[in-house]
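Quick check before the chapter quiz. The format below is the same one you will see on the exam, so make sure you can read both the input and the output lines.
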Amino acid sequence: MRNPWLKLSVLLFIWFSLNCQLSFGADTISANQSLSGNRTVVSSGGQFVLGFFTPGNSSNYYIGIWYGYQQVSRQTPVWVANRETPVRDIYSSELKISDGNLVLFNGSQVAIWSTNISSNNSSSVVAVLEDGGNLVLRDGPNSSEPLWQSLDHPTHTWLPGGKLSLNKRTNQSQLLTSWKNSEDPAPGLYSLELDPAGTNSYIILWNRTREYWTSGAWDEQSRIFSLVPEMRLNYIYNFSFYSDENESYFTYSLYNSEIISRFIMDYSGQIKQLSWLESSQQWNLFWSQPRQQCQVYAFCGAFGSCNEGGLPFCSCLRGFHPKSEANWNLSDFSDGCERTTKLQCEEDPSLATGKTDKFLESPNVQLPQNARSMNVGSMSECESTCLVYCNCTAYAYDSGSCSIWMTELLDLQQYSGDVSNGQTIYIRLAESEFQSSSNNNGIIIGAVAGSVGLVLCLVIFAILRWRRKRMINLKVEGSLLAFGYRDLQNATKNFSEKLGGGGFGSVFKGLLPDSSIIAVKQLESISQGEKQFRSEVSTIGTVQHVNLVRLRGFCSEGTRKLLVYDYMPNGSLDVHLFQEENSKALAWKTRYQIALGTARGLTYLHEKCRDCIIHCDIKPENILLDAEFCPKVSDFGLAKLIGRDFSRVLTTMRGTRGYLAPEWISGVAVTAKADVYSYGMMLFEIVSGRRNSELHEEGKVRFFPTSVARVITEDGDVLSLLDPGLNGEAPMDELSRICKVACWCIQDDETHRPSMGQVVQILEGVLDVNVPPVPRSLHVFADNSEHIIFFTESSSSQSPRTPSYNYASSQATSNTSSTSS
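Here is the expected output.
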């Protein structure tokens, strides 16, 4: 080799290969190897990687395990070794076998993390990264028994195959502990563990002291935790619980090994089950608890207020500011807030009573805990009692009961809208906080006075314009407009063009002076007063989603109650599904997107709003379509407007009984799962293009859901269920998926039905769905049709010839029959 440069290149290549062999997929660290710099260990199948990483914009480095980039393109750590002791220089730090342990040394060669085990033969110990994400220390490469494994020492992620156990001999629990924030894997405030009290339930603790969520006890018969009914839909996760005299633990695996899923204790204080969706390059949330962020204890820290009404969830009380702006920018609110101005009694301890401090009224809140009750006779005495103590931070007075807080205020939640159970708390502030407010008020008054002339001119101009065109003259919260009755009467040409109608009233097409087309619903049987109606409508108007019909305004003049919506040019879904034989059928792709969009709208109502909104009347007539056939759920606020009488109104409505969940008929409390049932019934009609119940010429009733259940459970021809007008043009996987989802949605027991959020993920292809059990009611209809009871309501709004179906056997129908008549 005469070329010296070529010789040097070869030598450099050989040296580089020998020193960087770990970065080319080797899954083992042996006694003569170490890990430093950018070198990594990769599991044999490329599923996981071990090496140094830095989270986010942090300058700290940690030894951790993350998903292989062929699996998950976004670096996602699942285990961290030195989470409390980061290093800065990864080239002088190294992870290696030392004295039979896997040890991390920093740049000064000080051991900062170790597996801390005893080994008889330190020279043969090896560390192997397995394809399940488990880092195992073995006494030799051929040893089957691990000396130590990372799955026994989880950090914030619980991987399939791992376990969270309770050692019954030591009463010690394995913990799943959150990161402090997105850039700091140090142990945070929130942890998940198996209850040391032996209740066979998992609990989430704040600061290892305060429990704020529990899974409920394990039910071996149904194989779920009692307060986690979602586990019944285990079409992705195979859950198992084990218990003996030594330990109890819970573990899970995946039915489909191709799915990438993880369970984490998030720094938000919620436990979350996430699945990777490669098409969108993101982790999709499958399930989380507690459901509401503000249910996490002390999430916003001291003197912070939590509000579900929008992002960010946390804000500081007036007169306070974040202790750490940097942490708040990372959504770590645990440091809480501190006073902008110290109290007078803190500045001058000789002022024993601190009378120069004042109190700020904060209404409509959930009061913090740990209050001290005081025996006083009036609100002024309650305030004076608080002023006596310099460490008294707030007081509340209600119906003769005085409560004062002698500590930092934790877990204070601010309600928005018309929440009836909100209370008022009075926050103690320095007097100067109120003085600055007075100065600001003076400036505001001057500005207002200087603008009076301009306002008068604008008013005159508005009056002249109003005379030419009767326009809307009042705005309320949420950008809603208050219409006059005559305005809407003119816009709809005296309500002459009817678009449709239902149990709540009729809908008419209208045209505003600005040429925008509207739909006006005249409400019937609405008994609320003016103030209550405006409050209810204002709340509904704040609910905005692409799959919900936008409420533009309302009219409330005496008994005249009207709602004004955006006009949907393609009408309602039923018009397109139940067409005449020669009409063009709605394409399958459009049907599927309508089903998915409707599910997204209902998910928003059930899970994303401050309060869960139950629609109560899901059916094709209430799914409207815009110009692009994007579905819009309509009438979603009417259940709230109708109030307590809604169940009576609904059960006497024409044409909705085919969508009623069994709990409506049985009279038990109705939850969001009633909407899931109705949605499932509508899915059947989207598939078939026909009503679920049809009376054939021979006098027999055809019930389409029974046909679907039979085909799905017997692995029959799914295409036979499709609308004949589509000529079999539908992907088999989508058709099978939507039929299975529909059957899950109409389960008799509401706890067996999925949530609408889960329905969305199934339809998106994020989650798989297994074959559902056939609901008992469908068994009855198919196998025992002579025992089906038909009954009618004694209501003038229901034709006596229109049947209502109560699917029950003859042995259990006497009570139902008498109740319904």
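If your answer matched, good. The first strand starts at residue 28 and ends at 29.
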